Amino acid sequence: MTIIEKIIANHSNQESVKPGDIVDVFIDTRAARDFGGANVVKNLLDNGLNIADPKRTIFTFDCNPGGSDQKYAANQHYCRQYARENDIRVYDVDSGIGTHLAIDNGLAWPGSTFVSTDSHANIMGAIASFGQGMGDQDIAAAWAKGSVWFKVPASVKINLYGKRPANLSAKDIVLNLLSIFGANKLLGYSVEIYGEETAKFTLAERITIASMGTEMGAIIILFPTSDSLLNELKLLTGKDYLSITADPDANYEKIFDIDLSTFLVMVAKPGHPHDDTSIETVRNLKIDSGFIGSCTNGRIEDLRAAANVLKGHKVAPGVVLKIVPATDSIWTQAMNEGLIQVFKEAGVLVSNAGCAGCAAGQIGQNGPGEVTISTGNRNFEGKQGKGLVYLASPAVVAASAVAGFITTPDQIPEKPAEFGKTGVIKTPVKEKSWTKKPTVVEGNVWIIPKDDIDTDMIFHNRYLTITDIKEMGQYTFDNLKGFEDFAKKAKPGDIVITRKNFGAGSSRQQAVDCLLSLGISCILAESFGAIYERNAINAALPILTYKPDTLSQFEIISGDRIRVDFVSGLLTNLRNGKTGIINRFYDAQLAIFENGGLL
User: Fold this and answer.
1) Residue among 441, 517, 443 at smallest CA distance from 477
2) To which H or E segment does residue 371 belong?
3) 3-262, superfamily in CATH?
4) Which fold has domain 266-411?
5) Sign, Cα dihedral of 271, 273, 275, 281
6) What CATH number labels 440-594?
7) pLDDT 10s digits, 224-237
8) H/E element holding 320?
9) pTM higher than 0.85 for the full model?
10) pLDDT tens, position by position, 113-151
């Protein structure tokens, strides 16, 4: 049998299996991440299912360990609560990438089985373990039953012969393989890699290659164990493991013999990991940013390779380089070896361990038009942001960040490239014209009888990326208890009356602009937050203050229609005809209002 056939047979109570057989495979370790973990829990609860074996079940919070996204934070906390109730271990936000933690902590081992909501769980092929990324229902079934059905895949054998070029990294090797096989020539296969040079590959190098099997469409890329690999694993886990390799008479559907000595230093062009080219074709291409990390290149060897390049250098002016170790223990090792100091002196942004930009995580995203060179495993459009992402090795990314353009460590210039004026962003010529706003308004009243309504209640920070005022109105007060439906019911011209310190908190302009977006004609309050008051006046949102003892004379209730004169301060309740004076616009406020706003 092949390696995968041996592992599946050993975990399905079968003497042997062959391609196409469908068997129930016992899973040694069953993981869910913060990305998908909450859905796994929901599937279990919705179907009344319990955990088969909590000791074999784990959560790993690696996609967004910062919890910087509200939905990630909510999902993480939900999973923590479920874990406490069911005695499940949580590798929390301080731990790192789940698949790496599984290898380093002996949760996966040669010959074992591992599943996760991570599509790169097949990284376990680096240690001759059968790992699979699966959907929420599959993982829920594994948690509840301890096994999942699986169709035994056919196997392919790749023999890498020839001498490995001295400057060839593991990332270059897998990019060369992607160039040869593309995204679908190995689709659905279990791939085994052999060769005199491959037997020397370190654990980190095997991880880099195995982690990109998903990008080739392969079920998994498996390396047979070697003595050096088993020694590395023992140093990490303190455990002795048996050697795992295919039988000499194993059957392979295809066998490929490939000359490793012909492989080149490669770069994957934006859009597709398999759209690979020699670095010579893109050398000197200007970049905006670089990223080193991910499950593909976040090991200590990767950080050392980057530090060797960065030591004594500075990241080029205007270029941003971000580095994220795969696990917290790797982070600590990098600190103890002085690598973190090298990174900081070079001007690198170093984050806590995790997946980083790969899943819109805590670091690594780029903006529209931004050119990034990255060690990640994917560069699909929109995957790491809205810019262009080239894939390369840690040494190439570090050298490129120092140079300011794509290059190799041996061709870093004495003076880095600098950004010039491109004319991409120009100040438009605009005519200063606007419709003069009325200083007397009539509108229906919303009374919000609360003090200290802060800007998070008015416009929550989860919407702060919105820049178009037209889109802001729909979120007004959706974080203010009792008024969550305000934006759906408010009409243009409506007037808000509230109490003390309206607009307390942050300086966000959106808390003003969202009310302008809805067409609110003015806001009356006993007092306003100091920054909010300036923001409202500058945006020509009419705000006026009143004294508590004077407002009661109007007998205003929600739904009344009132008239407000900004210049005189005259207020009239049109329902009962009661009138009186509140604080009028002061002169500067009126001047800015008549100007259509500060700008």
Assistant:
1) 517
2) strand 371-374
3) Aconitase, domain 3 (3.30.499.10)
4) Aconitase; domain 3 (3.30.499)
5) positive
6) 3.20.19.10
7) 999 999 999 999 99
8) strand 320-323
9) no
10) 999 999 899 999 999 999 999 999 999 999 999 999 999
